Amino acid sequence: MLIEAPEDVALVLDRYADVVSAGFVQIDEDFHILADNLGTVSGSYSDTVDLLREYYADNPWIGLLEYYPVSGNDTIFVPDMIPQLSSGVYVHHNASSFTGQNLLNTGPYYVPEYGDVLEISLPVYSSDDVYCGYVSVFFDSDQLFREFAAYVPELTEYDTAVIDSNGYVLYATSGEYAGWDVSGPTLELGNIYGEHLYQLLTQPEGAAMFHAYTPLYLEVFERITVWKTVDLLGYNIILLVDRPVSPWSVPEDTKFIPDVSGMTKETIALYQYAMAHSKDDTLVYLAGLDPVHAVVAYDMEGNVLSMASGVMRDTGTRWINIRDAYDVPTVRNMIHLAQQGGGYMQKYEPASVGEIPTTALLYLIYVMPVDDSWFITLRTPAKTELSPVVPFTSHDVTSLARNATLYAWESGMEAVIADINSGSSQLLAEASGKITDLAVIDMRGNVLANAFVPGDVGKNVFRFTDANGASVGRQYVLSAQGGGGLMYNVLVDLDDPAKQEVRLMYVEPVDNSWFIVAGIELETTTRADPLEMMP
């Protein structure tokens, strides 16, 4: 049902649309400068790589850069390890692909290392106007639109989503809905957005009121959505902003009582059932459960195979893009953990309404691999109280890792190792936030430099485990091999074994042989040590 747009939501939507439009104009200008500069160094492989690397380091929203020259040289990728992992991410274009336009928008593509990415491509011409090839940017729309939101402080009071003209959700405040197709009437979103979303494709702008449900608080309430269509580089997208009708925010006094021991027993029982039955029978059994804890089964590409009753997922959809309050790709970390035998990990679920979460609830997740193709997860709150979220924390740690990588590209491995091992790192001096980790590690797990724990240099990180017994070092390497990204590091507090430090980490591969790890402290929490509660 269409209604008149409330003034406050309409104003915030207009402000967000202005910022997004201006942001894409700047992206367009910067990208054209890159294409022009590439044309001036056409034929010089080293100069081309330097330009691509600098552009990549300066733009954390970029997942992958590709330059395809027509001169016969191999395609150049930044980071350069990606083509071996994602050879299907691109389709070669030629000069005729850009006929009538100097910009090409394609996608989204699904890339196992990054999730769903969009492509923007430009033709590259030499100074005498000869076609040299093209350059492409593949970007994570979640990261990009989150960065835009940082310039609209009012969005901390609202939820937002970005949908393309075909009904594909490119971004949503609740990151797990990225990738949904809302081109027709559907209730499959669990009423988070509701069946009204298909109206967005027929109405260029409007407002609606609907019932919403939050799995975090198990409450149903009314929401108001206001949307408008915006032209971005010739590509129509729909921006929407919504908020609860009443109350303005989800109550923060709801308490959870974790039952880690019960969760462990339930996990073991499900694993034993899976071992005694076929995969198909187990998935049917899981779908019929009404468990105490949220149960979801995934394959190793992040597809949901089955879910218990009441769990807000959809069987058959891919959830590799699920991100938590700190922009950590949760399912990707689940996959990494399953690949090393399973175990416990943690996730901060956004608990506040808004584009940039201001409060979050810490969850404990158990990952139990059944075989090398699929795994079962259970989830329960690890804390009974909400924790404040520090805005832009992920940007701080990402920028540090990117700056270290750029320095490595410009000056070489030995220079960045020397800086980090010097005891007075210039990289650290220029970083923002409460940095707790900065290290160089090779793909075999050997520590080459460590700014905070010099004694770890020369050791192998595969034997390093976190507070829940998982090999955090192996997760670093797996993440680097997959293109890098955000993850957690949960360590026992050396001063108080009853507590644990939760850190946000960013892994950035420099090339095929080594990578940078940067970390920032989130908080210290009371340990929920499941290993001591095993039956």
Shape: globular
Mean pLDDT: 83
Low-confidence stretches: 186-195
Name the CATH superfamily assignment of the largest domain: PAS domain
Write the CATH architecture name of the largest domain. 2-Layer Sandwich
- Over the alpha carbons, how many angstroms does the gyration radius reach? 23 Å
* Proportion in helices: 25-40%
What would the CATH topology of the largest domain be? Beta-Lactamase
Q: N- to C-terminal separation?
A: 53 Å
Number of structurally distinct domains: 4
Instruction: Briefly note the structural class of the backbone.
Output: alpha+beta
Main beta sheet strand tally, sense and closure:
6 strands, antiparallel
Write down how many β-strands occur, each being a DSSP E stretch of 2 or more residues: 21
Top CATH class of the largest domain: Alpha Beta
Report strand %: 25-35%
What is the helix tally?
11
Subcellular location: Cell membrane
Pfam families: sCache_2
Membrane topology: Multi-pass membrane protein
InterPro entries: sCache_2 (IPR033480)
Q: How would you characterize this protein structure?
A:
A hairpin with an 8-residue loop joins β13 and β14. Helices cover 26% and strands 31% of the residues. The strands form 4 sheets. Strands 11, 12, 13, 14, 15 and 16 form a 6-stranded antiparallel beta sheet that branches. A 5-stranded antiparallel beta sheet has the order 2-1-5-4-3. The chain has 4 domains: 20-143, Beta-Lactamase; 156-244, PAS domain (Beta-Lactamase), CATH 3.30.450.20; 260-388, PAS domain (Beta-Lactamase, 2-Layer Sandwich); 393-528, Beta-Lactamase. It is α+β, with helices and mostly antiparallel strands and 535 residues long. It comes from Methanocorpusculum petauri. Keywords: Cell membrane, Membrane, Transmembrane, Transmembrane helix. Residues 439-523 form the Single Cache domain.
